[in-house]
Write a structure and sequence with these properties.
This protein is mostly beta strands. It has five helices and 79 strands. It is globular.
Amino acid sequence: MRQFYKWMAKASLLLSLLLISAPRGLHAQATYLANESFKASLPSGWSVQPVSTTALPTWESSTQVATSGHYSMRGHTPYNTGDSVELVSPFYDCTNYKYVVLKFSHICKILQSDICQVMYQEQGLGGYYRWKELPVDAYKGKSLTYREKKLFNHTSYTEWMPTDTYALAQNGWWKEESFDLSNYASYTKIRFKFVIRKGNFFGSYAADGWFVDDFQLMASQVAIAPPVVDITSSYAEVLYYTGPFTINAKVATRTEAPIVRPWLCWTATLNNVTTTDSVRMTDRDGGDSLWTAEIPQHEYESVINYYIIGRDSAGNSSRDAGGFSLKYKGGVSDSNSVAMDDYISPLESTVAGTQPVLVSIRNIGLARLRSVNIGWSVNGVIQTPKAWTGNLPCDFTETVNIGTYTQRLDRYDTLKAWVYMPNNVTDPLWKDDTMEWIVYGCDSSMHGVYTVGAGKDFATLEEALFILSTCGAGGDVEFQLASGEYNRSLDFYNFGTQMGKYRLTISSIAGHADSVVFLPAKGVVVTLSNANHLRFENLTFSAANAASYVVNFTSRCDDVEFRHCHLRGYISSSTGAEHSVIYSAKTSVNDVRFIGNHIEYGSYGIYMNGMSATDPNTHILFDSNLIERSYYYPLYVYYTEMDFLHNTLVEGENVYTYFYGATFYYSHNTRVDANRIHGFGAAQYKYGFRFYYCDSTMLVCNNEVVLKNATGASYAYQDYYPYGLQVINNSAYLTGSSNSTFYGYYLYNTSNTYWGVIRNNNIVIDSVYPGTAYPLYVGYSQYVNRFDIDYNNWASKNNMANVGSVISSPAAFTAAVPSALHETNIYPAFTDTSAVIRNLQMASYNQLKCPAYPGVTSDVDGAMRLVVTGRGCYTSSADSANAALMALLGWPESGQGGDTLTPSVVLQNGGILPLRSVTIGWEVNGIRQPDVKWTGNLQIGETDTVILGRFVALGG
């Protein structure tokens, strides 16, 4: 964070400057200080260095690839080692804004031997500060090369084909990057530059270059939280058909402001003529996060570029883009050829009665199709043929109404259709001229609630699912099952296709899980493969007899939910994952939710492993679940973006030597909030939370860990190789035998690459054995200055920490950890006075209060955290009257003698009573300035800006 002039502002009720988040419910009103999509010429205020010549590579306008328009900026690698080329923006005035976010789209097809960096420079009163790389802690993108080395190259994303040096950039490669520069660009003027520096590999200048487009700088006085925009459809760079092309996307708000219905926009270029079009997207899930739209057919040799912009009603926006080209693959021996493409009506299951017969024909000849005859029959009876005329380009389709027929109720009919004489000549390819399909006459498409059981709407679940698959869904469908034991498995294969955009819910008539039990003799209880829009509610799924998984995701699934179910695994003594209750291995599932379930037994309670760091499981939610009696791992996630792990209790140990609570590998975009892990059993080694390679998009807050009776080692929180992991307001309590070694927070940081935030935690070790209790243990003390550690309580009856050596006092702690200015070693009294302490609420927060951390606005029980809160997962009671200073404005980092400054402060009511008056004292360079008397009426959480006075800066 930028350093201000030394100063002191004193409030009569709270004497510290607190930087906190905006009050809840206040939407971000973002202002675009820059929104540059680039044109044929360099935009006003932008520059390139060196200036372009035919002999010297530099930055230039390019039409090779672009996102929203026709142009992007393209930078070339210099020829000589050490040379660089720069694309420099103008200065942007952020002096009126507290929050600043930079976004841009790019393709970096530059070799690893060269360096591509984005840098920033501030403008002070006396001139310019030095250029700096955009900091890693501000980075919100997904490139590991940036998180590890603060640079981009063609290994940053797999789409950039790092194994093919000479691959040319394609529109499907665009990636959007985002940097939250609020701690670096607020209240100042700033500019940016994109730099390519040549390394020592001779031929690297042959790489395609660095393409930059859609450069945006957003600013606001309240927090900016751009929505998530993620195109989930996947198309190759070259397609050998003409469409149409369905584009699916996740567009989800990250504020309280709802998403504005997004647009799908595209350009199509054919024969050097470009057309632009767009269409409003349609929600896929009945909410405001999953959207779909369609790009219509385009002729061969067209180049299609498309993008989606997601906006919320408060003005926050984000985007994702793609593109492809259409090529004719050949394969016909004549210019005139036509094929039966598909049947449109009647479908395989349709309401019985008179139906139009609609078929789709496709021109597969090189010549435009002007005419064709279509013959057809019903149950072998020839019908009157249809003569079609029109103007259909190659590979285009057209739907033709060839007549009507009366479909029979509860009977199967066979329809056949064929085409002949395209453009009045014989079709040389006849194998694709005929199509046959069988249809079933239904009473109606299914929608609404149906009961299942003896004397119900359907006698069996098998019958209900058959009719649904045959007659289709005309709306959301719910099957309510009669109470009883169902000795069968459930296999939902390609069920997303059957339901379309509608949801199938399977629930119990009785409304509680124990009333309906699925208990197969063998095999997986519930198999989900390409199964979308499914919900299971108030059911029991048991593998007690099957010795297999309870829920197994075998391929990608979207929108699957288990709510208030009992998921009972096999009672296993295996450390393998084959007996997991919930299992997903390298499937990259999306939008999967487990809410209010009882997850019991199994080797693993939850095992979820995405495909890779670039293709993880996404938007996973676990909320209010009980996980108990897992033999090995209660919860293990790898390459998984878990939106929330919330209000989940992990409790109970099996007989295995190790107890693991919750383990996260390569997790990001995850909030682990208000969970409890209780390990009270006989396991020798106990672990609460374990984090490996987790980054700054992951927030761990308000969690409670209680580990007791260990005879080996106990670890409440293990943090291995963090890239900015935020661990805020958590609690831990550890006890054990004299043979135990206790680690409250174990930090393993092997180099200067790793960093993180550890604040406001309350770690307590109840051990009288000296030398074995470390509330904080830092593996590599020489790198601890990379971590923001402050306002924690590290309590044991002996040591405070081990940071290179044993630390037993707050003064020694501060000497070893530069950021730790407010650490305490206070052994607290808990309100839970029972023999087995489960609740770590403290009886007193005297000396154990701290400033609230941005974004952590409630505690483990949901109580509101105000400006001043308690250390640990519980909050203290709010003070009746409390004034807080949030920020200092109008006080630059440097200037010139004689400058007149008008400093002001942001005052906030941090108490529960209205704030109507306060006295603010301030001084400069040790000289007291006149007090400022403020009056007003601030309700809880509200702010006001107060001018302190005028000050003439002294030179030197």
